[in-house]
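Hi,

I'm pasting everything inline rather than attaching a file, because the server keeps stripping attachments. The sequence lines come first, and each chain or strand is labelled.
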Amino acid sequence: MSPLFEEIIEEPASADVPTRRVAITVNGQRRVAEVEPRLLLAHLLRQGFKLTGTHLGCDTTNCGACTVLVDGKAIKSCTMLAVQADGHEVTTVEGLASMSELSPIQEGFKDEHGLQCGFCTPGMMLSATAMLAENPNPTEEDVRWALSGNLCRCTGYQNIVKAVLWAAAKMRGEEPSHEGAA
Amino acid sequence: MTALDEIKIGGLGASRRRVEDNRFIRGKGTYIDDIVLPGMLHMEILRSPVAHARIRSIDTSKAWEIPGVRLVLTGDMMATRNLAWMPTLSYDTQAVLATDKVRFQGQEVACVIADDPYIAKDACEAIVVDYEPLPAIVNPTQAMAPDAPLIRDDKENQADNIAFHWQVGDKEGTDRAFAEADVISKISLHYPRSHPSPIECCGSIADFDRATGKLTVYLTTQAPHIVRAAVAMVAELPEHMIRIVSPDIGGGFGNKVPVYPGYVMSILASILLERPVKWIEDRTGNLISTGFGRDVYLDGELALRRDGRILAVRMHTTSDHGAFFGDAQPSKFKIGLMHSAFSCYDIPYAYLSATGVYTNKAPGGVAYRCSFRVTEAMFFQERMIEAAASDLGMDPAELRRINLVRDDDFPHRTAWGFLTDSGQYGRCLDVALEAIGYEEFRRQQAQAREAGRLLGIGISTMTEPLGAGNSREYDILGIKMFDSAELRVHLTGRAILRTGARTQGQGHETTWAQIVAHELGIPADDVLVEEGDTDTAPFGMGTYASRSTPVAGAAVAMAARKVRAKARKLAAHLLEVSEEDVEWELGRFHVRGAPDRGVTIQECAMAAYANMPDGLEPGLEASAYYDPPNLTWPFACYVVTVEVDPETGVWDVLNVVAVDDCGVRINPMVVEGQIMGGLTEAYAMASMQFITFDAEGNCIGSNFMDYLLPTAWETPGFELHEVVTPCPHHPIGAKGVGECATVGGPAAFVNAVLDALKPFGVRNIDMPLLPDRVHEAISRRRDVSGAPPVRTD
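And the predicted assembly:
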């Protein structure tokens, strides 16, 4: 879809700032952008592509709020440059659900009260998604280890762990249990 | 007509799945940094790299030269607008941008507004500040030394580094009781400085519209109306032209109560530039400059009879407030509600003296998941009880049991004057000890000790005052602490509810609707809850100190009851009987004696717009301002078992049992979520989470690599139990709960570890109980202080 009208803002060109063109498949859609090489992937997703479900919480790869999937692997997008994602596939929280249907992970987080303020939630769900793709039948310990790169200050993790186990059961075609974790 | 099932309509007691989750799980929340306004500029703050220094000069010329820079602000420029300093919430002043000196590492020195945040950051680095270093004061001992350099030389009549002296209680009575005691148990403790660290940092977007004169500020605040009042008074802008919007908040925990310099700078920048200005704090800025929690030292004493009865308590606290006394707390209590300590015990005499000092550390002293220093109060209480049990050679559970206020002693006036009104303290303790298997664990512990293994069990029992006010006792900057709700029922029976509170994850959008469902029988799904916009929300004091349910939640119930009273008139009209002949059942009025003849609340709502009786005002809405008669007093008992590795000092949590009595639970799922979150912060503080400083005042803990927060991997599992004693004065019998576990939890963990170390005669290790501290205590058989290093030269 082309916009009916787009104003061109004429800024004095700052010739000394180099840019590079990147093409990234984001949530199944090819996106092309002209970026400064120093631009962080998280900033391109948020400010460039307006996918604000990816959050920033620490700037140092500790909190995991910015976790996205790059070629299916959980990556902290606050310490990956946008140019490093050139040619790769990125999945953000906005790509977890189809228009009408939530993913089992999203359902599990809601059903097991796995979130409170919601700020860490997208990163948590993407880390969990990456783990479940590799290990469809995780133990509580597996889940806790897989989420140990994501910080949550509200929930105390117990319900997050339950939510992931709930989703795992559902993805295996079982009836999810409410007694998933101790 | 069958009666409505309250659980099915999402009423009281329903573990209703949360409404707000629908957007959060899709990444469709709107947090501050998600908001983009047309023409918006970006602000970055230059912070002081040193803790104490005189500013000789600030050269911003290089910053101005960078393309895309629109404005560079310094303290001198703020001063021309009388905005270089601002009042704190504790009647002190705080620098917005430093003019004379910097007084802590991380203090705001200048800011840059530019086209994008990268340019603004580059420009901050181009600012040259010439500092003349001064000696840094990093703890109370240094602050109170006779030759200590004066930190607050900006204040008239401030000759030393003392922020306040304060006292409360019966000093003479306490002294007499101590003179008559069989045993006096003493302990000195430090509750270390900690930082709430919500995963979302602070931020603001100020948008001043010259044409209308309206200032809109999107801001990460737990208390939007307090911010509006502060902006009106500090910036001298007309209050009706200020709109504060608190968007989705990524966690608060007290950190988002104060008004921070960054907010003020972004507002001034927007006024000067007439464009929206966004400031998003980075994590280091958040950790080194915004409201910390705790940092209090205690000298505590209990006067005891040989049989274990506590005769009196004496406490002296020394609190480190940093460079500006910026505690967010009710005005008349200088050390918050520290004197709520020991409220669950029947003690005749008590005396507290408190000294607050200035140091070259960040200001704040916020109520970090805590009702104003209650966390420190209850930690000190439960550590003092544990030490007393040890001194008496008594079982710590037994010592608690004989001193707990009994069920038939309510209402109970504490020695410090609080009125506790309800509880089943002994039963909570019983449930907890039964759940953990106390007697059996003691047997296992004895066997394990013989085998050289260190098992420990720790108990913490406490009641805490949650839900400030009442307005007689509690105000912030003179504004009384009540709260409010406005309920408007539309003609189809759907409704919108607004309150003066502000959810930051507590789930108000879900649970407030449940109160309406309980009071009116309107299904919770039919009630939209809105908060956080001062243009639409009624005036309230916001969400902190576990006050939402006790105060705003009560206001919701009262507003709904007003709506019901009006609906009764409409029902009488529709049923063609007098009001006295109309009886209420959930969701429906019927004619007395003829239950089949009735009208639903929805039919009443339609009548309010389409078929009102003569003389009755149209519409169906009500507002309520609720001033609670008392605080609410939840009770909790937490029991923790641990095993300590004597070789490494590492301790593993074996079990955590939590018994909470927070009265009636609106949404049990949400309540349990609050308790588990609180227990995790308790574990965090006991095990790893603290902010300390080196001798030069450098903050050790300025990022999440140095400031440790527990992950899913370390955090133990929790076993939750409940006892329900309804609050006698709350409209639906609820009590506050959000902070109980953070408040009561830490002592249970610490008591457990020290119980395990009993064979070594270790009386205390200050939090956090890092493995090296535990190991040092074992290997040298002595107490280990976690106090920050004191300069000895």
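The mean pLDDT of chain A is 92.

If the labels don't parse on your end, tell me and I'll reformat.
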